[in-house]
Amino acid sequence: MNEHEYDKKLYEFSRTEPEIAVGLIEELHRKREEHYNLLLKLNKNARKIYEKIKDKQDIIKTVKFSEKEYIDKPLAGIDGSMYVIGGRGKRYYAFISAVIVLMERGLSSTGDSVKTLYPRDCIRVEAFDDPSLGNEVQRIAEDMMFYYETKALYEVNHMCREQGKCYYVFIDGPIIDPPRELTSYGKKFAYERLKNDIIGHHILSRINSVDSIYYSYRIHPFIEAWNLRSREHYIVGYVKNTRTEQLLTKELINNGVSRNLVSSFTGDDEIAYMVLSNAVGDTDNYAYLGPFRITCYDDELRYMRTYLNEGLTLYYIYGINRWHNKVFRLELGVSEDTQDNTDISRVFDNLYKLVLTITLPGNVHPLPVVVAHEKCKIRPGAAQLIYELLLSGIYSDVISSNELNESDTMTTLNLLREVIEKH
Protein backbone atom coordinates (compact mmCIF):
# COMPACT_ATOMS: atom_id res chain seq x y z
CA MET A 1 0.00 0.00 0.00
CA ASN A 2 1.46 3.34 -0.99
CA GLU A 3 1.35 6.47 1.17
CA HIS A 4 -1.52 8.03 -0.80
CA GLU A 5 -3.73 4.95 -0.38
CA TYR A 6 -2.92 4.76 3.33
CA ASP A 7 -3.72 8.45 3.88
CA LYS A 8 -7.04 8.02 2.05
CA LYS A 9 -8.01 5.05 4.23
CA LEU A 10 -6.95 6.90 7.38
CA TYR A 11 -9.02 9.92 6.35
CA GLU A 12 -12.10 7.79 5.68
CA PHE A 13 -11.61 5.99 8.99
CA SER A 14 -11.47 9.33 10.84
CA ARG A 15 -14.75 10.35 9.15
CA THR A 16 -16.56 7.23 10.38
CA GLU A 17 -18.83 7.67 13.39
CA PRO A 18 -16.91 6.51 16.54
CA GLU A 19 -19.73 4.18 17.68
CA ILE A 20 -19.72 2.44 14.29
CA ALA A 21 -15.93 2.12 14.11
CA VAL A 22 -15.63 0.76 17.67
CA GLY A 23 -18.58 -1.60 17.17
CA LEU A 24 -17.08 -3.03 13.96
CA ILE A 25 -13.67 -3.51 15.60
CA GLU A 26 -15.21 -5.34 18.56
CA GLU A 27 -17.33 -7.51 16.27
CA LEU A 28 -14.35 -8.43 14.11
CA HIS A 29 -12.26 -9.23 17.20
CA ARG A 30 -14.87 -11.82 18.21
CA LYS A 31 -14.54 -13.40 14.77
CA ARG A 32 -10.73 -13.41 14.79
CA GLU A 33 -10.38 -17.00 15.94
CA GLU A 34 -12.88 -18.15 13.30
CA HIS A 35 -10.84 -16.41 10.60
CA TYR A 36 -7.58 -17.84 11.96
CA ASN A 37 -9.00 -21.36 11.86
CA LEU A 38 -10.12 -20.84 8.27
CA LEU A 39 -6.59 -19.81 7.26
CA LEU A 40 -5.17 -22.88 9.00
CA LYS A 41 -7.60 -25.09 7.09
CA LEU A 42 -6.70 -23.50 3.74
CA ASN A 43 -2.99 -23.83 4.41
CA LYS A 44 -3.43 -27.47 5.40
CA ASN A 45 -5.39 -28.17 2.20
CA ALA A 46 -2.82 -26.32 0.10
CA ARG A 47 -0.09 -28.46 1.63
CA LYS A 48 -2.00 -31.61 0.67
CA ILE A 49 -2.39 -30.35 -2.90
CA TYR A 50 1.32 -29.54 -3.07
CA GLU A 51 2.28 -33.00 -1.78
CA LYS A 52 0.05 -34.51 -4.47
CA ILE A 53 1.66 -32.59 -7.37
CA LYS A 54 5.20 -31.73 -6.19
CA ASP A 55 6.89 -34.46 -8.25
CA LYS A 56 5.01 -33.66 -11.46
CA GLN A 57 7.16 -31.34 -13.58
CA ASP A 58 4.31 -30.74 -16.01
CA ILE A 59 2.17 -29.28 -13.19
CA ILE A 60 4.54 -27.44 -10.88
CA LYS A 61 8.09 -26.28 -11.49
CA THR A 62 10.69 -24.67 -9.22
CA VAL A 63 13.14 -22.30 -10.91
CA LYS A 64 16.30 -20.37 -10.15
CA PHE A 65 17.53 -17.53 -12.32
CA SER A 66 19.97 -14.70 -12.72
CA GLU A 67 18.48 -11.25 -13.37
CA LYS A 68 21.49 -10.32 -15.51
CA GLU A 69 20.41 -12.89 -18.07
CA TYR A 70 17.13 -11.05 -18.75
CA ILE A 71 17.84 -7.41 -18.03
CA ASP A 72 18.60 -6.43 -21.66
CA LYS A 73 15.78 -8.33 -23.41
CA PRO A 74 13.86 -5.99 -25.79
CA LEU A 75 10.41 -5.36 -24.31
CA ALA A 76 7.11 -4.03 -25.60
CA GLY A 77 3.80 -3.29 -23.93
CA ILE A 78 0.43 -2.94 -25.67
CA ASP A 79 -2.70 -1.62 -24.03
CA GLY A 80 -5.93 0.10 -24.93
CA SER A 81 -8.21 2.52 -23.14
CA MET A 82 -11.73 3.78 -23.65
CA TYR A 83 -14.20 6.18 -22.10
CA VAL A 84 -17.87 6.51 -23.04
CA ILE A 85 -19.80 9.75 -22.87
CA GLY A 86 -23.09 11.07 -24.23
CA GLY A 87 -26.47 9.41 -24.33
CA ARG A 88 -28.79 12.08 -25.68
CA GLY A 89 -31.03 10.65 -28.37
CA LYS A 90 -29.37 7.24 -27.78
CA ARG A 91 -26.15 8.67 -29.29
CA TYR A 92 -22.93 7.81 -27.46
CA TYR A 93 -19.30 8.61 -28.15
CA ALA A 94 -16.53 6.14 -27.34
CA PHE A 95 -13.13 7.80 -26.86
CA ILE A 96 -10.56 5.11 -27.72
CA SER A 97 -6.79 4.83 -27.73
CA ALA A 98 -4.33 1.97 -28.27
CA VAL A 99 -0.57 2.32 -27.86
CA ILE A 100 2.65 0.36 -28.22
CA VAL A 101 5.49 1.09 -25.80
CA LEU A 102 8.93 -0.11 -26.93
CA MET A 103 11.88 -0.59 -24.59
CA GLU A 104 14.55 -1.61 -27.08
CA ARG A 105 17.18 -2.51 -24.47
CA GLY A 106 14.82 -3.81 -21.82
CA LEU A 107 15.45 -2.48 -18.32
CA SER A 108 18.65 -0.86 -19.59
CA SER A 109 16.62 1.36 -21.94
CA THR A 110 17.05 5.11 -21.62
CA GLY A 111 16.18 8.16 -23.73
CA ASP A 112 15.78 7.32 -27.39
CA SER A 113 15.58 3.58 -26.71
CA VAL A 114 12.15 4.05 -25.07
CA LYS A 115 9.42 4.89 -27.60
CA THR A 116 5.66 5.21 -27.56
CA LEU A 117 3.96 4.43 -30.87
CA TYR A 118 0.38 5.25 -31.80
CA PRO A 119 -0.55 2.81 -34.58
CA ARG A 120 -2.47 4.13 -37.56
CA ASP A 121 -6.10 5.04 -36.77
CA CYS A 122 -5.78 3.85 -33.16
CA ILE A 123 -6.81 7.15 -31.55
CA ARG A 124 -10.50 7.35 -32.31
CA VAL A 125 -13.84 8.80 -31.34
CA GLU A 126 -16.52 6.34 -32.41
CA ALA A 127 -20.15 7.49 -32.45
CA PHE A 128 -22.85 4.88 -32.04
CA ASP A 129 -26.51 4.51 -31.17
CA ASP A 130 -27.24 1.95 -28.47
CA PRO A 131 -30.59 0.23 -29.05
CA SER A 132 -30.46 -1.23 -25.53
CA LEU A 133 -30.96 2.26 -24.02
CA GLY A 134 -27.66 2.16 -22.19
CA ASN A 135 -27.56 -1.47 -21.00
CA GLU A 136 -24.76 -2.47 -23.40
CA VAL A 137 -22.91 0.82 -23.86
CA GLN A 138 -19.78 -0.21 -21.97
CA ARG A 139 -19.58 -3.57 -23.73
CA ILE A 140 -20.00 -2.01 -27.16
CA ALA A 141 -17.21 0.46 -26.41
CA GLU A 142 -14.99 -2.36 -25.13
CA ASP A 143 -15.56 -4.32 -28.35
CA MET A 144 -14.47 -1.29 -30.37
CA MET A 145 -11.39 -0.78 -28.20
CA PHE A 146 -10.26 -4.40 -28.55
CA TYR A 147 -10.52 -4.13 -32.32
CA TYR A 148 -8.03 -1.23 -32.28
CA GLU A 149 -5.83 -2.92 -29.68
CA THR A 150 -5.65 -5.94 -31.99
CA LYS A 151 -4.45 -3.65 -34.82
CA ALA A 152 -1.46 -2.84 -32.59
CA LEU A 153 -0.65 -6.56 -32.34
CA TYR A 154 -0.37 -6.75 -36.12
CA GLU A 155 1.93 -3.73 -36.03
CA VAL A 156 4.49 -5.32 -33.65
CA ASN A 157 4.52 -8.52 -35.72
CA HIS A 158 5.16 -6.45 -38.86
CA MET A 159 8.09 -4.75 -37.14
CA CYS A 160 9.63 -8.13 -36.37
CA ARG A 161 8.84 -9.85 -39.65
CA GLU A 162 9.74 -7.01 -42.03
CA GLN A 163 12.20 -4.84 -40.06
CA GLY A 164 13.87 -7.40 -37.80
CA LYS A 165 12.83 -5.47 -34.65
CA CYS A 166 11.54 -8.24 -32.40
CA TYR A 167 10.32 -7.95 -28.82
CA TYR A 168 8.91 -9.73 -25.83
CA VAL A 169 5.46 -8.15 -26.13
CA PHE A 170 3.13 -8.04 -23.13
CA ILE A 171 -0.55 -7.23 -23.45
CA ASP A 172 -2.53 -6.09 -20.44
CA GLY A 173 -5.12 -8.84 -20.17
CA PRO A 174 -5.93 -12.27 -21.59
CA ILE A 175 -5.35 -13.38 -25.16
CA ILE A 176 -9.07 -14.04 -25.61
CA ASP A 177 -10.27 -10.51 -25.01
CA PRO A 178 -12.96 -9.55 -24.26
CA PRO A 179 -13.44 -12.69 -22.12
CA ARG A 180 -17.06 -13.01 -23.22
CA GLU A 181 -19.17 -13.13 -26.37
CA LEU A 182 -19.00 -9.96 -28.45
CA THR A 183 -22.10 -7.80 -28.67
CA SER A 184 -24.02 -7.86 -31.94
CA TYR A 185 -22.96 -4.25 -32.51
CA GLY A 186 -19.32 -5.15 -31.83
CA LYS A 187 -19.40 -7.94 -34.40
CA LYS A 188 -20.88 -5.64 -37.05
CA PHE A 189 -18.37 -2.93 -36.15
CA ALA A 190 -15.40 -5.26 -36.75
CA TYR A 191 -16.95 -6.58 -39.96
CA GLU A 192 -17.52 -3.11 -41.44
CA ARG A 193 -13.90 -2.09 -40.84
CA LEU A 194 -12.27 -5.32 -41.88
CA LYS A 195 -14.11 -5.66 -45.18
CA ASN A 196 -12.12 -2.61 -46.35
CA ASP A 197 -8.84 -3.84 -44.89
CA ILE A 198 -6.16 -5.99 -46.57
CA ILE A 199 -6.08 -8.43 -43.65
CA GLY A 200 -9.87 -8.42 -43.55
CA HIS A 201 -10.05 -9.39 -47.24
CA HIS A 202 -7.85 -12.41 -46.51
CA ILE A 203 -10.09 -13.47 -43.61
CA LEU A 204 -13.28 -12.93 -45.60
CA SER A 205 -11.91 -15.11 -48.39
CA ARG A 206 -12.17 -17.98 -45.91
CA ILE A 207 -15.21 -17.01 -43.83
CA ASN A 208 -17.75 -14.48 -45.06
CA SER A 209 -19.35 -14.20 -41.64
CA VAL A 210 -20.22 -11.15 -39.55
CA ASP A 211 -20.26 -13.31 -36.42
CA SER A 212 -16.80 -14.89 -36.82
CA ILE A 213 -14.56 -12.28 -38.42
CA TYR A 214 -13.37 -10.59 -35.20
CA TYR A 215 -12.37 -13.92 -33.68
CA SER A 216 -10.26 -14.83 -36.72
CA TYR A 217 -8.77 -11.33 -36.73
CA ARG A 218 -7.86 -11.57 -33.05
CA ILE A 219 -6.12 -14.95 -33.02
CA HIS A 220 -3.91 -14.51 -36.11
CA PRO A 221 -1.22 -12.23 -34.55
CA PHE A 222 -0.70 -14.66 -31.65
CA ILE A 223 -0.18 -17.61 -33.97
CA GLU A 224 2.09 -15.51 -36.21
CA ALA A 225 4.15 -14.41 -33.18
CA TRP A 226 4.53 -18.04 -32.11
CA ASN A 227 5.89 -18.85 -35.56
CA LEU A 228 8.41 -15.98 -35.11
CA ARG A 229 9.71 -17.33 -31.79
CA SER A 230 13.06 -18.33 -33.31
CA ARG A 231 13.72 -14.55 -33.48
CA GLU A 232 12.83 -14.19 -29.79
CA HIS A 233 9.52 -12.55 -30.59
CA TYR A 234 6.49 -13.39 -28.46
CA ILE A 235 3.10 -11.91 -27.64
CA VAL A 236 2.22 -12.78 -24.06
CA GLY A 237 -1.09 -12.28 -22.29
CA TYR A 238 -0.53 -10.96 -18.76
CA VAL A 239 -3.68 -11.47 -16.66
CA LYS A 240 -3.75 -9.42 -13.45
CA ASN A 241 -7.01 -10.53 -11.88
CA THR A 242 -7.52 -14.28 -11.47
CA ARG A 243 -9.41 -14.25 -8.18
CA THR A 244 -12.65 -15.99 -9.10
CA GLU A 245 -11.59 -17.96 -12.19
CA GLN A 246 -11.67 -21.76 -12.18
CA LEU A 247 -9.18 -22.77 -14.91
CA LEU A 248 -6.54 -23.97 -12.44
CA THR A 249 -9.17 -25.52 -10.17
CA LYS A 250 -10.47 -27.72 -12.99
CA GLU A 251 -6.94 -28.60 -14.14
CA LEU A 252 -5.93 -29.80 -10.69
CA ILE A 253 -9.05 -31.96 -10.44
CA ASN A 254 -8.27 -33.44 -13.87
CA ASN A 255 -4.81 -34.32 -12.53
CA GLY A 256 -6.13 -36.31 -9.58
CA VAL A 257 -6.43 -33.68 -6.85
CA SER A 258 -9.49 -34.19 -4.64
CA ARG A 259 -12.45 -31.99 -5.51
CA ASN A 260 -13.09 -31.51 -1.79
CA LEU A 261 -9.62 -29.98 -1.35
CA VAL A 262 -9.92 -27.43 -4.15
CA SER A 263 -13.54 -26.54 -3.31
CA SER A 264 -12.42 -24.93 -0.03
CA PHE A 265 -10.72 -22.13 -2.02
CA THR A 266 -12.53 -19.20 -3.63
CA GLY A 267 -10.76 -19.61 -6.98
CA ASP A 268 -7.50 -19.88 -8.89
CA ASP A 269 -5.87 -16.90 -7.18
CA GLU A 270 -6.16 -18.38 -3.69
CA ILE A 271 -5.11 -21.90 -4.71
CA ALA A 272 -2.10 -20.71 -6.71
CA TYR A 273 -0.89 -18.40 -3.94
CA MET A 274 -1.04 -20.98 -1.16
CA VAL A 275 0.29 -23.92 -3.20
CA LEU A 276 3.23 -21.91 -4.58
CA SER A 277 3.99 -20.59 -1.10
CA ASN A 278 4.31 -24.19 0.03
CA ALA A 279 6.52 -24.97 -2.96
CA VAL A 280 9.18 -22.35 -2.24
CA GLY A 281 8.95 -22.13 1.55
CA ASP A 282 11.76 -19.99 2.94
CA THR A 283 14.13 -20.59 0.02
CA ASP A 284 15.29 -18.11 -2.61
CA ASN A 285 13.68 -20.20 -5.34
CA TYR A 286 10.55 -19.38 -7.33
CA ALA A 287 7.87 -21.67 -8.68
CA TYR A 288 4.99 -21.64 -11.14
CA LEU A 289 2.04 -23.90 -11.95
CA GLY A 290 1.68 -25.23 -15.50
CA PRO A 291 1.86 -24.98 -18.40
CA PHE A 292 -1.70 -26.13 -18.94
CA ARG A 293 -3.70 -26.26 -22.12
CA ILE A 294 -7.25 -24.91 -22.27
CA THR A 295 -9.44 -27.64 -23.72
CA CYS A 296 -12.71 -27.47 -21.77
CA TYR A 297 -15.93 -26.21 -23.34
CA ASP A 298 -18.23 -25.94 -20.34
CA ASP A 299 -20.83 -23.18 -20.07
CA GLU A 300 -18.48 -20.84 -18.23
CA LEU A 301 -15.91 -20.94 -21.06
CA ARG A 302 -18.19 -21.25 -24.07
CA TYR A 303 -17.05 -17.86 -25.39
CA MET A 304 -13.62 -19.45 -26.04
CA ARG A 305 -15.00 -22.06 -28.43
CA THR A 306 -14.98 -19.88 -31.55
CA TYR A 307 -11.35 -18.83 -30.98
CA LEU A 308 -10.12 -22.37 -30.37
CA ASN A 309 -12.07 -23.69 -33.37
CA GLU A 310 -10.30 -21.10 -35.54
CA GLY A 311 -6.94 -22.82 -34.97
CA LEU A 312 -5.69 -21.27 -31.72
CA THR A 313 -4.27 -23.45 -28.96
CA LEU A 314 -4.04 -21.64 -25.65
CA TYR A 315 -1.53 -22.43 -22.88
CA TYR A 316 -1.09 -20.72 -19.51
CA ILE A 317 0.84 -20.76 -16.25
CA TYR A 318 0.25 -19.24 -12.81
CA GLY A 319 3.01 -17.43 -10.93
CA ILE A 320 3.53 -14.98 -8.06
CA ASN A 321 4.96 -11.47 -8.05
CA ARG A 322 7.89 -11.75 -5.66
CA TRP A 323 7.45 -8.22 -4.30
CA HIS A 324 3.75 -8.34 -3.44
CA ASN A 325 2.85 -12.06 -3.54
CA LYS A 326 0.17 -11.20 -6.10
CA VAL A 327 -0.84 -14.07 -8.37
CA PHE A 328 -0.83 -13.54 -12.14
CA ARG A 329 -1.42 -15.70 -15.20
CA LEU A 330 0.73 -15.76 -18.33
CA GLU A 331 -0.83 -16.93 -21.59
CA LEU A 332 0.59 -17.98 -24.95
CA GLY A 333 -1.37 -18.64 -28.12
CA VAL A 334 0.23 -21.25 -30.39
CA SER A 335 -0.76 -22.82 -33.69
CA GLU A 336 -2.84 -25.98 -33.35
CA ASP A 337 -0.25 -28.07 -35.21
CA THR A 338 2.38 -27.49 -32.50
CA GLN A 339 3.21 -30.85 -30.97
CA ASP A 340 6.39 -30.11 -29.01
CA ASN A 341 5.36 -29.64 -25.37
CA THR A 342 9.04 -29.40 -24.43
CA ASP A 343 9.35 -26.23 -26.52
CA ILE A 344 6.26 -24.75 -24.85
CA SER A 345 7.63 -25.51 -21.37
CA ARG A 346 11.00 -23.98 -22.25
CA VAL A 347 9.36 -20.78 -23.49
CA PHE A 348 7.24 -20.43 -20.34
CA ASP A 349 10.31 -21.07 -18.20
CA ASN A 350 12.04 -18.09 -19.81
CA LEU A 351 8.93 -15.90 -19.79
CA TYR A 352 8.37 -16.46 -16.07
CA LYS A 353 11.96 -15.56 -15.23
CA LEU A 354 11.67 -12.50 -17.48
CA VAL A 355 8.50 -11.34 -15.69
CA LEU A 356 10.21 -11.70 -12.31
CA THR A 357 13.11 -9.60 -13.61
CA ILE A 358 11.05 -6.79 -15.13
CA THR A 359 8.63 -6.46 -12.18
CA LEU A 360 10.42 -3.85 -10.14
CA PRO A 361 10.23 -3.10 -6.40
CA GLY A 362 7.23 -0.85 -5.81
CA ASN A 363 5.45 -2.14 -8.93
CA VAL A 364 2.75 -4.80 -8.84
CA HIS A 365 3.07 -5.67 -12.54
CA PRO A 366 5.84 -5.92 -15.19
CA LEU A 367 7.25 -2.59 -16.34
CA PRO A 368 6.01 -2.67 -19.99
CA VAL A 369 2.47 -3.43 -18.75
CA VAL A 370 2.63 -0.54 -16.26
CA VAL A 371 4.03 1.96 -18.78
CA ALA A 372 1.61 1.01 -21.59
CA HIS A 373 -1.32 1.28 -19.19
CA GLU A 374 -0.32 4.83 -18.24
CA LYS A 375 0.47 5.93 -21.80
CA CYS A 376 -2.87 4.85 -23.26
CA LYS A 377 -5.08 6.05 -20.43
CA ILE A 378 -7.99 8.30 -21.35
CA ARG A 379 -8.75 10.19 -18.16
CA PRO A 380 -12.45 10.89 -17.47
CA GLY A 381 -11.98 14.61 -16.78
CA ALA A 382 -10.14 15.12 -20.07
CA ALA A 383 -12.77 13.19 -22.04
CA GLN A 384 -15.60 15.16 -20.46
CA LEU A 385 -13.88 18.48 -21.18
CA ILE A 386 -13.29 17.53 -24.81
CA TYR A 387 -16.91 16.48 -25.18
CA GLU A 388 -18.37 19.57 -23.50
CA LEU A 389 -16.13 22.24 -24.99
CA LEU A 390 -14.48 21.09 -28.17
CA LEU A 391 -17.60 19.76 -29.83
CA SER A 392 -19.17 23.16 -29.25
CA GLY A 393 -16.73 24.70 -31.74
CA ILE A 394 -13.84 25.93 -29.59
CA TYR A 395 -11.34 23.87 -31.57
CA SER A 396 -11.99 26.08 -34.62
CA ASP A 397 -10.37 28.96 -32.69
CA VAL A 398 -7.18 26.92 -32.44
CA ILE A 399 -7.24 25.82 -36.08
CA SER A 400 -7.38 29.45 -37.23
CA SER A 401 -4.45 30.52 -35.01
CA ASN A 402 -1.34 31.84 -36.79
CA GLU A 403 0.80 30.19 -34.09
CA LEU A 404 -0.26 26.68 -35.03
CA ASN A 405 2.38 24.35 -36.36
CA GLU A 406 0.77 21.12 -37.55
CA SER A 407 3.77 19.04 -36.55
CA ASP A 408 3.91 20.43 -33.03
CA THR A 409 1.43 18.63 -30.81
CA MET A 410 2.42 20.53 -27.67
CA THR A 411 1.82 23.90 -29.37
CA THR A 412 -1.68 22.77 -30.34
CA LEU A 413 -2.36 21.54 -26.82
CA ASN A 414 -1.14 24.77 -25.20
CA LEU A 415 -3.20 26.91 -27.56
CA LEU A 416 -6.20 24.76 -26.86
CA ARG A 417 -5.73 25.17 -23.12
CA GLU A 418 -5.59 28.95 -23.49
CA VAL A 419 -8.79 29.04 -25.55
CA ILE A 420 -10.63 26.82 -23.04
CA GLU A 421 -9.57 29.06 -20.14
CA LYS A 422 -10.88 32.17 -21.97
CA HIS A 423 -14.26 30.53 -22.41
Structure description:
- By secondary structure, the protein is of the alpha+beta class.
- It is globular, with a radius of gyration of 24 Å.
- The protein has helices spanning 3-15, 18-30, 32-53, 137-163, 184-194, 198-204, 213-227, 247-254, 259-262, 268-280, 305-309, 341-358, 367-376, 380-389, 395-399, 409-422; strands at residues 60-63, 75-86, 91-103, 114-117, 123-129, 168-172, 234-239, 286-293, 312-320, 327-335.
- It is built from 16 helices and 10 strands.
- Strand 2 (75-86) and strand 3 form a beta hairpin.
- Strands 1, 2, 3, 4, 5, 6, 7, 8, 9 and 10 form a 10-stranded mixed β-sheet that branches.
- It has one domain.
